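Because showing beats explaining, we think one record worth quoting, sequence and backbone structure tokens together, and here it is:
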Amino acid sequence: MSDYPLKDFAEYSVWGGGVVPERPVKCGLLIRCPNCGMRGGVYFRNVIGDPQGQELFLKAFAGEPMWDRTGDTLETMSLSPSVMMNGHFHSWVRDGKLKIDSVFSCTKLPEE
């Protein structure tokens, strides 16, 4: 239905600062709903950063849902499987874009 630049609606989630400060990794994304601003997140199965940090992250979050990532930047990233923010939207992340293929089911933010 609509494509949105991922860089405008997502930021990296970084893990390791308090647990293993020498091995921080970009472990996922926090994604804002383009319609209402609510945030949700996904974890990467293949984190960006130190391989030992990845091993520690995967042990710490064993059993959590994980997404496969290609591309190391928000401008090039693709994720599999798709992303569902319940009560907001369903989307694919492909080539740095949120490719939303559902109608928004949340209340739109008021215009400023």
